[in-house]
Fold this sequence. Notes:
This protein is α/β, with parallel strands linked by helices. 29% of the residues lie in helices and 26% in strands.
Amino acid sequence: MPGSTEGRPWIVVQHTPTEGPGLLTGVMDDAGAPVSVVRLDLGDVLPAPSEVAGVVVMGGPMGVHDTADHPWLTAERHWLTGAVEAGLPVLGVCLGSQLLAAALGAEVTTGPVPEIGVGQVTLEAEGRADPLLGPEGDRLPVVHWHSDTFAIPDGAVRLASSAHYENQAFRYGDRVYGLQFHLEVDDEVAAGWAPDLPAGISLDRPDRTPVEATGRRVFRRFVDLGSALSAPS
């Protein structure tokens, strides 16, 4: 269990220019949580877990196993193992969830079909009882963009699923979460993704509004949960 992390920054790990923290930045600001963005694609170095208050790992078009083209993926996975072992609150989003699952010893593979666009996930019984996702009800509006999937790590619990992907979210312990889906997509992120979206898929604001509202609530609960768990007794 970590001691007080007061004064330490939260780290947002970014892998590509168009997959930044999005609306998470505003949530962190509102919560008074200092944030440092680490751009692994630009050669930034991850800090020691002892220097960090919490971790959010963003998505990216590469896969967990694409280490020949992105050699920093291997070091990132090992770093995530250390962050979990250090007792930090950790949240993985899309690629981040797959890296987190791999760091916890689970398999990451190609899924049955690509899942792209505004959609939803259904909470399992564990998800409905979960302090992070449970307050949202039985289903969450989300943005999908993935074709890989993770197995649930040993010792973790499945929180959510969708029609095509059984494993959409997991919790490991009381402060480590993997979310296959996106909740961070604001106007800036959506604009960055737009040129690469498949034909017929859009992320127009009216469709994203429920996702943004859910994302703000879920991310704020994660920051508050992490801060409470790391506070001195």
